[in-house]
């Protein structure tokens, strides 16, 4: 086998491995932390009861409120009832991106979360050294944040993220409207339309397909239409 072919195979394996790990970590963080499903697990409830001063009460970092604020067209609520709510006040106090941006702090947290998986795999399974692994790992994390910040705040009608806050949105903003970003947009729109029950991946779709939580565009569009019909019927009845 030629050296060039081996190098291509290694590069493909390295990229596929990193994408898989990113998709897995994005899924776990989004579903079990941001949607607060960890606290629903009996094991976590038992730990909270046994060690109330040590095991924290999780709140998803404002993500549950983000769902409450987001309409099915992905724009944010501006009605008086919402604006007067405690949930809205919490998002107002959080940041101008209302929990949709990937800040440098969040990027650092995800990097630390992935490091115990990345380094053993690349150094032991693939035979890379620490430096080569780091030089591949950190740019990959930056790319993930760049995709997220170009996509997510914008699709909810919010301003671009500046470099002072997180990976700057402008770097990949030119991809908005492309087939790639439309695919990511549709995938995440389904997450909101389903009430946060499907399509947990945002920048790295994959793991939803593996564990069975993926929802097709056709399916969530039908759900969206049904919800709109029920809402319209309610308005007619109330009138």
Question: Could you characterize what this model shows?
Answer:
It is a single chain. The longest helix has 32 residues. By secondary structure, the chain is mostly helical. Helix content is 63%, strand content 0%. Helix 1 packs across helix 6, helix 6 runs antiparallel to helix 7 and helix 8 crosses helix 10.
Lay out the secondary structure.
Layout: H1 3-34, H2 42-50, H3 63-69, H4 80-83, H5 86-94, H6 104-125, H7 130-155, H8 179-193, H9 207-211, H10 217-238
Helix pairs in contact: 1-6, 3-5, 6-7, 8-10
Approximate helicity band: 55-70%
What is the radius of gyration?
20 Å
N-to-C terminal Cα separation, in Å?
A: 75 Å
Globular, elongated, flat, extended or rod-shaped: what is the shape? globular
- Number of discrete helical segments: 10
Fraction of residues in β-strands: under 5%
What letter string, H or E per element, gives the SSE order? HHHHHHHHHH
Please outline the major beta sheet: none
Unreliable stretches: none
Mean pLDDT: 90
Class inferred from helices and paired strands? mainly alpha
Q: What is the number of strand segments?
A: 0
Provide a quick synopsis of the model.
Helices cover 63% and strands 0% of the residues.
